[in-house]
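Subgroup meeting minutes
Present: P.N., E.W., G.H.
Scribe: E.W.

1. P.N. recapped why we're keeping a running log of single-chain structure predictions: easier to compare across weeks, and new members can see raw inputs and outputs side by side.
2. G.H. added today's entry (523 aa).
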Amino acid sequence: MKKRFSFVTVSGVFLLALFLGVQINNVISGENIFEQLNKFKDVLSLTEKYYVDEIDTQKLVEAAIHGMLGNLDPHSVYIPAKELPKINEDFQGSFEGIGVEYDVLGDTLIVVAPVAGGPSEALGILSGDKIVRIDDSSSVGIKREDVPKKLRGPKGTHVKVAIARAGEKDLIDFDITRDKIPLYSVDVSYMVKDDIGYVSVNRFASTTHDEFVTALQKLKGQGMKRLIVDLRNNPGGYLEQAYKLADELLPKGRKVVYTKGRRPEFNEEYTSAGGGDSDVSLIVLINHGSASASEIVSGAVQDWDRGLIVGETSFGKGLVQRQIDLPDKSAFRLTIARYYTPSGRLIQRPYGKDIEDYVKEGLAKDEKDSTRPVFKTSGGRPVFGGGGITPDYIIKSEKASTQYVQIQSKVGFRNFALRYMDEHGKGIHADYGKDVKRFVGDFTVKDEVVRQFESEAKKHGVAIDPAQWAKDEPVIKARLKGEFARSIWGNEGLWRVWQKGDDAQFQKALTLFPEAEKIAGIR
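Output recorded in log:
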């Protein structure tokens, strides 16, 4: 029983080809698009007619689309109909799964960033980690549309992953309990001290601007005159939301970002309307997991000398995709332009055929070297192009020891903390009430609790090196204290504990407001 071409399949092929022919104009340079379409039709028709086994024409067509888009750039992708709703929900509502932003580059499944407050973050999964096995199956070569099938699932169910991490000789095994993953854009917003406010934004979703404005209003009501915006591990999202957020920070009439494509109708320029708080002192934190929309905001802040950028060089994702829906309810995202900062810096870092190098290059290139093009801010300060946003102050994040990584993956600080708080939480509540600041300043994780945690690690098969444990112990205590705080005060508790002593980038930012005010002309 032969499978014949369905009307939807044939229509989809022809409409896709027509779009590429009419809208993009001679995609295949020097050859007529319809000649190429006829060639494709002949190959597909003859394959369906003569191939030794029965074939699924829809799969062949989708494979051809995958191959075509994959030959363009790392971010032009095809989205099958059954996967489109799940992908769209990443920027609205919630879902149940392990809580990671991911990308599939070449044959590699890569963690762009763990979702704040999700189970993967709790176990210590990091940006740049490569998921090479899911349960008992290799994930090398996995298709983008198959990732949600493997990683998402009902709350409370388990999935095991093996991760390859740069600098680690062996794979790291994680047993992750799926949970409901809320998709709030603003993780936390609070007053750090005196007149300094802090807002952490984890993505640019449909509600980001509204959440950010609400956070700013709350902080201004508490006396905020200086602001730290944390975009670390923020993988991006909607351009419109990035523009609106930047508009809250820039004076009127400032170019936020512009795009340039091969076709003039894809050239756009976004200019601030000036409805925000341009008189607030500003520092923006970024790292390797900050991409796309995060780079638009930080690039505009830097180019206009509106504030200082602190942390590590951002990811370098500056290609503009337009999602085009197809008749069978599938879609594809096609790169139509490139993002540029106001000074003319191209955000996208170089890419080629070697996807592995594309991933590594952004994680390694932090130095302000002479090979990178130099641009000028509005005030004449030199800033670096060549891909991504290079901070004004490069502060490396501390690399965890192999033993600490094993403890995170096999034991889990949060799981231990939840069990501890079941027994001792009432006492901590009684001692500190609602005063998270006093908890951060006064609470100490007792040595006997650390010994219990060490015993737990041994039970889970972690080989404890006493010398390394002694080096890791201050960080272990801080992480346990942070998880205790999170169980009472939510993310704000964890953030406050961690930032007090173990977040070098944040601590550096606190010292830089006089300089940020000087370059911005704020008195």
